[in-house]
Amino acid sequence: MVSTYFGYNYITRNLKQSLARVEQQADVAREAAYYKANIGKVKTVDDFMKDYRLYHYAMKAYGLEDMAYAKAFMKKVLESDLNDSKSFVNQLVDKRYREFAAAFSFNGSATPVAQSDTQTDEMIGLYTATKKHEVDALTSDQNYYSAQIGNITTADQLLNNDRLRNYVYSAFGIDESKWPPGTISQVLRSDPSDPASYVNTTFASQLSGLNASLAQAQSDISAANSNIANYTAQLSQPGANVPQLQVQILVEKYHLETATKSVSSLNDQIGAIGNFVDLAGAFEFLPDGSLPAGTPAQTAANITLTKKQFDDSKADIYSAASPIYEAVAIKQFRTDLLKINSVQAFLSTPGVYDFALGAVGLDPDKVSRDVVKKVLESDINDPKSYVYTLKDTRYVQLARAFNFDAKGNLTTPLVAQDSAEVLQIAKDYVIQAVKSASTATPQQQAAVKAQAAKDATEYQQAIAGIDKVSDLLANRPMVDLILLAKGLDPRKVSDDFLKKIFASDLNDKKSFVNTQSDPRFAEIVASFNFDSKGNVARLPMMGPQKRDQFRETQTNYLEQSLELQQGDTNPGVRLALYFKRKAGDITSAYDILADKALSEVFRTTFNLPDSMAAMPIDQQAKFVDKFMKIKDLSDPAKVDKLLSRFSAMYDVKNSDSTGQGQSPLLNLFQGSNSGISSMSEATYLAIAKLRAH
Description:
Layout: H1 4-13, H2 15-24, H3 26-38, H4 45-50, H5 52-61, H6 71-78, H7 95-102, H8 117-148, H9 155-160, H10 162-171, H11 181-188, H12 198-202, H13 207-234, H14 242-281, H15 300-313, H16 315-320, H17 323-337, H18 343-347, H19 350-359, H20 369-376, H21 386-389, H22 393-401, H23 419-436, H24 442-462, H25 469-473, H26 476-485, H27 495-502, H28 520-526, H29 547-569, H30 571-582, H31 589-593, H32 596-605, H33 617-627, H34 636-653, H35 681-692
């Protein structure tokens, strides 16, 4: 039999080739193909467990094949909430069950919602910022008007200055879409006290007739209401001609509607004339548009009046920005948001519609609902979609803020990483940080853990702002946190390397990321929802599994198959391969002691008796900490050195089984009780050669 040392080193030095050979084996390829073809059809836990081949494939992938019979137990594992520390799976000591549950999204898949919590918080923040910006803009306009009005010398100069013109129009209620500049220029040159001035002959002269028409329309409204009441009362009288009365009521309602519209129109006309007269009286321009020598465009009193009227015209903006109004609007938005289940519901719910449009700086009264509908149904990843044809970033903001598909139905939030992935990265980062400080003082460990928790929280918040790969790669501290969470050294990973792995096609076995010796880089790429163009996208799930979960299951199946096959020839090689695969997840001595295989590797490596397993767990943990540094298990080189020692020791320890006596080579390992042995690999090689003889 080939020695454990040679067998293990041959496999690890040619790991990709070894896995490739296993992958090509007929039975392995057949089961992998079946899993890939059928996992997408699974909708529930029961569906999954009823399919023998799918269920057993996954159980083997996570080293739980011997528990496949316990379906009731495994169902509870799969239905557990991983985020609940008191859930069934989180109460189990063996981490394999949690890893198995984490490989599926029966309970953790994203739910279609109008907005995620992050989107809602961002919209509320945007609303507050927009309202403040609008008030700040009004203050800026006020200051500009105060600074510039004294420099105006002609009516046309005033009208040709966009900011001053808009300010004056707002203050005096002038609708620019209805009145051409020439008309307003003539009004500004008018003297309201002169009966022959333009404003009086063209507009004020109409007031008498308009007021008379208004009085008549108001009288018509009164008469129509009276007639409707009279005819309605007659309907209940004996012998009433009901059809005739109903016709008369309809006629009177028509008169009422006509008269009501007339009152509204007449009031608008009268109001507009009043505004023109006020405008003319607020400025000192002569009929030719100039100013009398030494006379400003406005008196101090009229400047004050104009400013007051401007503020009055913007009362809605000032009110919307007030703390009380804002609090009410936010509360209403949160309440009504729960009712939104489609674009149509969005359009018909003012508490959400007005708030959302206001947040991005759009006026709900001036924007077509049909336009908003098309915007919300646009695909923001498609540069040719409707929202981008508008050439207005406000509409893009609105589309990004909500989750609707092309048919106006709810869909899942568009995020760079799913919440479960984000949480896992954050947790792994804290674990790695704590592991790195395993030899520090308790006070230092507490400080490291606190800082790591703070960094992890910041990551959870910052990842929500990532919209494309370039955003992620531009934030090197964020990338470094991800690398550290995976047990990788950021100093050894260049920006160019990161660009290459994220540009790789995960489905192409020959792509850059898939040809790396370390599979953790492919795991990182798979954990993000980037499409082939580097944009955040809603990637399709394969039944209960996301892309990274499916990849992990298939990779684990291959590794388990390799380990099992090696174990048939040499159990020591299987143990070493298993330890190598699990080393990065070990965070304390108790992780080793809770796993029989890991414990055996530890005891064999340091020539400790199997009877040690009967000792109290805390005493065993002290032995683990005495013989090895847990933080060293994050260093692949140190793990390889540890397993080189294990493989040699395993051969020595098991020499009796091959007819050889106890080897004096054991003496070489006595006394090594601090960290991972510093003995060179050449020494282990020599031992292996002696063992072979």
